[in-house]
Amino acid sequence: MIKYIVRRLLLLIPIMLAVSFIVFTLLYITPGDPVKMILGESSTPEAVAAVRAKLGLDQPFFTRYLNYLNNLIRLDMGISYVTGGSVAKEIFNCVPYTLHLAFISILLAVVVGIPIGVVSAVKQYTTFDNVVMVIGLVGISMPVFWLGLLLILFFSVNLKILPSSGINSWAHMILPAITVGAQSIAVICRMTRSSMLEVIRQDYIRTVRAKGQTEFNIVVSHTLHNAMIPIITVIGLQFGALLGGAIMAETIFSIPGVGRLMVDSIKQRDYPIVQGVVLFVAISFSLVNLLIDIIYAFIDPKIRSKY
Description:
The chain is mainly alpha-helical. The chain folds into two domains: 18-73, no CATH class; 94-304, MetI-like (MetI-like fold, Orthogonal Bundle).
């Protein structure tokens, strides 16, 4: 297991190189001049040339990329064009807010999605199952920004019982968590139902039932336990996406997380921040996937024996 973890961590190196090159290339060919965003449209050509030379933007593409990689190896993500502060510091100042929102949202999705999916599988083709499937389809299809605005309109504007923005108390996280977690609830619920239905038809479940086990024990100890692998995969992917920053939710609810930092940086052509955020997202996804594989080994002995 330790060798496997080390191999996966070493695999992060080529992944980060590929991600950094793709992002650097895309930002290089993106229209817009960050220097004019810094100095303003009325800036003189001399001032523009001076700032461009100071930031290294007057150098050839590969020279700039190699300089960026050299700094990255030394864990230096660069300096923000707008604030002049460290990119790493600015990102990690935003990470706690994104982590807070991601943990609350995924916890809500797991607590709500898995039980509903289990009941829906056990009561397949009943009215409850049909209603859950319709609601799940709506949840997956509903845009995050639209749901967020509806929740603000209903709970903040009309009922005036929940704040519409900010991070000052636990009440401020209710609407963002519901907004972000709604889609994850639908995805986890549908995956739980599908995985449960696949397992519940197996011969060994029929054998356990014939031995006189209670229905609750059959569903929880045997069916759900053996159906958890794909469910955990979906939970991990959803959590990885949330760690990337719930961009729309953080923007709508004025949460100073990674997603909002990304949006603001793109508007301001602050390319070092954009590159840093994308690298953070890629590393987050890779580490979450590694954690999922480790959890697989603890759940399924067959997988554990392969390590």
